[in-house]
Write a structure and sequence with these properties.
Blueprint lengths: L14 E2 L9 H9 L14 E4 L2 E4 L17 H5 L10 E2 L19 E3 L9 H7 L12 H10 L3 H15 L24 E2 L7
Parallel strand pairs: 1-6, 4-5
Antiparallel strand pairs: 2-3
Keywords: Methyltransferase, S-adenosyl-L-methionine, Transferase
GO molecular function: DNA (cytosine-5-)-methyltransferase activity; DNA binding
Protein name: DNA (cytosine-5-)-methyltransferase
């Protein structure tokens, strides 16, 4: 994961769109706030959970911690996901790690998608950057719809390379050498400092 920098890419308007996260429900937000801000952190770091032979178990010596709502801090579905062997539920990403996939549903129940240092999931723009979308590309629809658009998309650099090489092949201009670099830059956005655009559409 790359540290977010508002001026590393640019748009003609100087505005950065879609840089806000999906709003978690109160229980999940409370859980996320308890996940340590360290590499590899996830629900296994919460009180009452022990790991034996790579599988999670309840710690019989620790009373189960409850949220303000009365629901458990460590939900049953996290303990039983992939028969207790998964480290994904409520997992934090880290700066030197690769994001395994960009999902359409930004909920931390069974995915590693928490920001390394902030108590939130990745924003729409952060997901879009992972998919190679330039900052000048503005998404439309509700927050959920925009996450879905990015998650279902083919990564832009992949689509660009495929389109370019197919175009060469159709014109009979391709050879047996592998394509390692494209002969042009993308996107063609102008270099300007970015201002983050607020969007209160949390639907």
């Amino acid at each position: 994961m790359v540290n977010y920098s508002a001026d590393s890419q640019s748009v003609p308007s100087g505005k950065l769109y879609d840089h806000f996260p999906y709003k978690l429900n109160t229980d999940d937000y409370e859980r996320v706030c308890q996940i340590p801000k360290k590499k590899g952190a996830n629900f296994r770091d919460l009180p009452g959970v022990v790991v034996k032979d790579r599988k999670v178990e309840w710690d019989p010596t620790v009373e189960r911690v409850l949220l303000k709502s009365g629901k458990p801090l460590v939900p049953n579905y996290a303990m039983s996901f992939v028969r207790g062997t998964s480290t994904k539920p409520f997992g934090r990403l880290w700066w030197d790690e690769i994001v395994s996939t960009v999902v359409t549903r930004p909920e931390p129940h069974n995915q590693v998608l928490l920001h390394p240092h902030q108590d939130r999931v990745l924003t729409i723009r952060e997901n879009a950057r992972l998919q190679g979308f330039p900052d000048c590309y503005q998404l439309r629809g509700s927050v959920k719809e925009r996450y879905i658009q990015v998650g279902n998309a083919v990564a832009v650099p992949v689509a660009l390379a495929l389109g370019y090489t197919l175009g060469l092949a159709i014109q009979g201009l391709s050879d047996n050498k592998p394509l390692t670099t494209l002969p042009f830059k993308y996107p063609s956005c102008l270099a300007q400092p970015l201002a983050i655009v607020e969007d209160d559409d949390s639907s």
